[in-house]
Design goal:
By secondary structure, the protein is mainly α. About 65% of the residues lie in helices and about 0% in strands. It is built from six helices and no strands. The chain has helices at about 1-5, 10-30, 40-50, 70-80, 85-95, 100-105. It is globular and about 40 Å long.
């Protein structure tokens, strides 16, 4: 996905292709941060486990819609966790475009 995201022109498809790799990097960073509350860490861990789990609601081998359930679960977990995490900590951990995170959080 990282290679795909790098080759796409700017736009929503590039954002979606780079979303999961950015989330994984953010999860790894936030789980070590002492400013992140335990409930937020659990939500982030759940999202991380969902992404790496071989059991999915929509099988991964289906083109385009395969990773859709991963994206939805990660987005919902991030929204929940972001309400409890200080904003500056969250933006420091996010490696992708900050506008994408701003749109995700609403």
């Amino acid at each position: 996905m990282i290679v795909l995201a790098a080759r796409l022109p700017p736009g929503i498809l590039k954002d979606l292709a780079g979303f999961l790799p950015a989330c994984i990097t953010t999860i790894r960073t936030l789980r070590k941060d002492p400013q992140v509350p335990r409930r937020a860490k659990l939500a982030i861990a759940f999202a991380g486990l969902w992404v790496i789990s071989p059991i999915d609601l929509i099988p991964e081998f289906l083109p385009v819609i395969g990773p859709l359930d991963d994206i939805v679960v990660v987005a919902l977990a991030f929204r929940y966790a972001a309400r409890q995490i200080p904003t500056d900590v969250l933006y420091d951990a996010w490696p992708a475009d900050p506008d994408l995170l701003r749109r995700l959080l609403g």
